[in-house]
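Re-running the complex after MR caught last week's input typo. The corrected sequence lines follow. Everything else is unchanged.
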Amino acid sequence: MLIEVRGVVKSYAKGAETVRVLHGIDLDVGDAEWVALMGPSGSGKTTLLNLLGGLDVPDEGSIVVGGEDLVGRSPAELAGWRSRHVGFIFQLYNLLAVLTAYQNVELPLLLTPLSRKERREHVEVALSTVGLSDRMDHYPSQLSGGQQQRVAIARAIVTDPSFLLADEPTGDLDAKSAHEILDLLQALHEHYGKSIVMVTHDPAAAKCADRLVHLEKGFLVADEVRS
Amino acid sequence: MPWRLLVAHLRRSWFRTALTAAGVALAIFLLATLRTVVTGLQSVVKDSNANRLVVTSALGLFKNQPVRLRHELQTVPGVRDVTDWTWFGGVYIDEKNMFSRFATEPATLRRVYGEGPRPDIAMPADQWEAFEADRGSCIVGMGLVREFGFAIGDKIEMTGNIFPGQYTFTVRGIYLKGRDQIDEAMLFFQWKYLEQSIERDGGTSEVGIFVLACDPNVETGAIARDVDLRFASSDHATTTVTEAAFNQMFVSMWGNVPLLLSMIGGAVLFAAFMIALNTMLLAGRERRLEIGVLKALGFPGGVVATLLVAESVLVCGTGGVAGVAAAHWMFDIRRVEILDRMFPGFMILPETALGAVAIAALVGLVSGAVPAIVATRTSVVSGLSRRG
Amino acid sequence: MIFKLLRYNLRSLIVRRGGTVLSVLSIGFSVGILVLVLALARGFELSLTRTGRDDNLIVLRQGATSEGESGISRDAARLLRSYQGVALGRDGEPLAAPECYAALNLEREGGGTANFTLRGVSAASFEIRDFLVIREGRKFQPGTREVVVGKSLVGRMKGSKVGGQLELQDQEWPVVGVLDSQGGAYDSEIWCDAEVLLQVLNRPIYQTCILRRAEPAPREGPDPLIAVLEDDQRLGVKVQTEPGYFASQAGMLGDVLKFVGYFIAGIMATGAAFGTAVTLLASLAERTREIGTLLALGFRPRQILIGFLFEALILGLLGGIVGVLLALPVNNVATGTMNWKTFTEQAFAFRITTDVVIAAVTFSTIIGVVSGLVPAWKASRVPPSVALRE
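Corrected-run output:
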């Protein structure tokens, strides 16, 4: 089992009150499994995603990834762990506007001991995988939404992470671009065996996943394997 | 370390960077200038001639002394030469044309100030002789030549006030200063010329101050005490001090200039800090999302902090260098005539320049540290979430 | 419609209060410097120009620009006393007082020396200058070496208090009183008996003569009394009113101080203007969508421009007020400097007067507006379509 989540509880302070967002979640994600997290807004799916990625720490419970428990780690340790194991794909792409596509994809590699030549090889492979080799010197403002998301995906895979976390990857795209992105994710999932945990509202995206997990008001209410 | 991010940011917002650097540059320019005024005043004292003594009346600078003291002072052991300066005052065309005018004894002036490898008042020998020979002659400094265009042979007319009457001097020599601290815009004429009009008005033959050139092997303090003791009980008691102490008196008469300049300097520094901090806090706010992404990707908080601080130090440091360069150009290269006269020796010292740049870098350090600390403290999640 | 817009601009400043505060502070410190130096110049000027009565005349030798350069012989003094047009005192004697002026090097409180003004006066001097009071102690005894000191000297010159001593030429001169000339130049002087001083200095002549005129000067046209005095060949003098003379002594120092003040503050304020421009430009960048919306609603680009200039003006205005408040603590703080004309110590106080405040606030408002020129121009160029994009 790649990811094991046991009894995770998470609350947030909202003004003077504390709101409990996750009420004891148990979840398993296997190697090369594509899980879609679904549910109405406020159900806690984005929070769960953040916890899986080590961006935040649960109040109770454990999150074990590849045998290592994330709970109890310091922010610095989590940062290092993230850089090695997780690839993030955000709804609004979150590319750095001041860097070119090439430089954006190269960014995570700067945390590794690779030489400039080695980094170049990895970046070129990642960009060709997403089909954007000819635009590597463009700035994000010069790319369409779909192209930006593809650059973001290239960035997410360039370090060869253990799994990908995607937060509404098609949420900001038109139907055609969304389709392209889902095809790409599918290719990554099938040909490269990447595990993907994806938060989505998009039924087309949900159709690509192996498993649909439903959250409602911080509880896991359904877990169905798609046929 | 993603330094390219630093470069990319600076290029992106080059106008804002330029404005910030310019603001810091202006502040540092002022700081360097203010500091130089202080060091300039100090140098006037520090670089005085160690073997000269100045003899004034014990009552103060404005009481003149009997001319016969020339001979009496010559007999004091340790005194090699005696010359005297008498402030003339007077008006040259207009009250606005202010420069120092002194009546003196040409031969003794030459012996005390005009001899040696680097004399304080440097003039060719034939001009000294012409000055000594012609009772109605005068010598002027190069600074006056630059300002008024005087040349050898010109006649300068002046209206006296302390010594009333019309005076005409013929320029017989032009001197250059041997040290930065010497005023190169003075006019000297023969005291004998003055004596004529003093006698005509029925006054007593008096001169202003005496300057003694002393034997370097004799302690000047002892000579000074000797002189004052000799005249203590007469009706022209003297106060004898070293040239350094005499200059110090002039400096200290300015009052609490160092304090005023420090207050101004403090305000300037604070304003510069506000300017740099403003820009960096702005940058920090605008880059919240970007900082969140970097952290999500796994960059440690220290990297983000270092980038912000480095950017700030670079911008402010550049401004600091520019400010010092501007001050150097204005004061060391262009040389403002009026400043030269009031503050001879007014130049940017290396330690002033280095100190100013260091201060600029420090301002950069602190104003970059504030957003850097905020960035390291902010959680990744709040950086990423659009809703804040 | 324009006022609603200005309210939006004000709100914008309040919402982005970090940038607002820093801009206001950086302008404020620059203005504070200006106020400081202008107050110094004003205080210096006031200490001189408020000296004396308009119907007192100071007589100097022709060609002298200050008392120190002047000389009045005993014969001339006698002549002046008997002149028609000179008022008579309480005792029936003419109000004409010859005086001796000297600058003497004395020790300052706290180290160092300075040239202090010593004025040898006659009995009539006090009556002629009737605005003068003896604050503490009493007048000096004529014929003795007793002195009175001006109130500004107390605490600045060593020994200047009732019961203290001054050392002149190896002799002790006891201080018996403190005089108060209501903020005039005499507050920085030491007064003693003229005859005693002449003797000590070995001088045969006085320096000046002060006299009170019997009839006031005509409102317009030339002054007959001054003309007659100056034309008199036996005297060879030049005459000024008492306030007029001291105003002329202010000379260059006041102007130089003001120049220096504007120079320093101007440079600093330019830097502050740059910083403020950065704030406004960044604010603009964040608000492009808002501006596009305003344009879509029907506001015109010119109004957007005015709004931004208004923001800049407010920043400048606030900066000016902050600057004045920052400098306020120095108001009435005593200080002193050397008067370049007379080479003597002039004690005075920082004076933040109304015109100083007005000058400073005007200056800072201009700085604010200048800093807003580029941002305002850029704001007016935002196309309405940005409201819909992204």
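None of the earlier attempt is carried over here. Chains A and C do not touch (no CB pair under 8 Å). Residues 175-192 of chain A form the longest helix (18 residues).
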